[in-house]
């Protein structure tokens, strides 16, 4: 696709309008369903350091999940933009942590400790059948995932209405390891997204986890 940047810009604009038009009751219900799936299917999150994003422009709200994970012993972190061309770094967050307004007017922790994350809950404007993510266009998460070794488990979260057939990925695009929507959990394999139950998801993570939360199939 020669005009892929323009195509993605158009898709991004359409999907963001669709997301911001979701009825409040539907948004609450779908977000609660995603939270329940993450709580039940990703038990390893409770003992790791988990990065998440402050909800922005109609995204899934992960804060109830973060409260749950913190109560079960997880360390939580929010991303901080260093500069436009560098990977994100992550600062520790907890309920009541000091906050300030960061890039794009999104709240970030105010000079709390820097941490290394084991897993990331990543919002998606859109996603395709292979688990590739459409973001805001700055490439921060692709750059961050490419730079981290070991790479953290990448869990993309979005609503089903944001699903696309094909994002026409490029070499710099990195697929999610799992995608979670209000409809279920999908494991990203070489042949595409495969729906799995919460029990199957927990089994995959338990069976294949060897000190690194990322799963490769």
Name the helicity range: 25-40%
Structural class: alpha/beta
Largest sheet: 9 strands, mixed
| Secondary-structure element pattern, one letter each | HHEHEEEEEEEEHEEEEH
CATH domain topology: Rossmann fold
Number of domains: 1
Low-confidence stretches: 210-217
The strands making up the biggest β-sheet line up spatially as 6-3-2-1-7-10-11-12-13
Mean pLDDT: 92
Strand fraction: 15-25%
Shape: globular
Cα distance spanning the termini: 28 Å
- Note the total helix count: 5
Radius of gyration: 16 Å
Number of E-type strands: 13
CATH H-level superfamily: NagB/RpiA/CoA transferase-like
CATH class identity: Alpha Beta
Question: In CATH terms, what is the architecture?
Answer: 3-Layer(aba) Sandwich
Describe it:
With 217 residues, the protein is of the alpha/beta class. It has one domain (4-208): NagB/RpiA/CoA transferase-like (Rossmann fold, 3-Layer(aba) Sandwich), CATH 3.40.50. The chain is built from 5 helices and 13 strands. It has helices at 4-20, 24-41, 63-71, 140-147, 198-208, and strands at 49-51, 75-80, 89-93, 99-101, 107-109, 114-115, 119-123, 126-127, 133-134, 153-157, 178-181, 184-189, 192-196. The strands form 3 sheets. A 9-stranded mixed sheet has the order 6-3-2-1-7-10-11-12-13, sandwiched between helices. A two-stranded antiparallel sheet has the order 4-5. Helix 3 (63-71) links the parallel strand 1 and strand 2 (75-80). Helix 2 (24-41) runs parallel beside helix 3 (63-71) and helix 2 (24-41) crosses helix 5 (198-208). The longest helix is centred in the N-terminal third of the chain and has 18 residues, at 24-41. Mean pLDDT is 92; it is low at 210-217.
